[in-house]
Write the structure tokens for this entry.
Amino acid sequence: MLKVHHLSDSRSQKVVWLLEELGCPYDLVYHRRLPVTMLGPPALKAAHPIGKAPVLEVEGRSIVESGAIIDYILLRHGQGRLMPDTDGPELLPYLEWMNFAVSIGSNPIMMKVYARAFGLEGTALGPAADAELALVLGYLDRSLREKIYLLGDLFTAADIQVSFVAELARAFASIDDYPEIIAWLGRLHSRPGFQASLTKGSYIYGA
């Protein structure tokens, strides 16, 4: 049985959503952020030395990093679901989006988070973060034109991964100028798997 250590308002919600979409059984260990620092509680370090969520426990071992966790779940339990045919043309954009979500897509948002946390919003870091975020959101919005999901009609784990970028952007900035992203999030939030995940963990800034 998979065990997921889930931290409120964090990337671990994506793992819960993925497992609900797959119908894969799992145990959920819920952790709340500390009220003053908003950091994860000490109990997370008992699950993994890095002390961050999500943590996946399986067969007496544990791993962190949402991208690695999602890859593992798909390889071991996906049975080809929520990812494209590895011999098809969708593999290249799928891999790009899966990594975009935890690197290029997330970087400007984290810049804004750190600028706010350390009182640097009035410095050069603030405008630089805004410019990078506009670049990211513009690319995502254009990529969604005339598409239901990132890979067209095919819903994949990439949609789950990248949705977190859009949710954070909405929380820390605005996505009002990106109608394709707004419509895409609406379609994602209407999925039964997403709705089921809401009953298991509090989704970050969910609609």
In short: Confidence is low (pLDDT under 50) at residues 203-207.
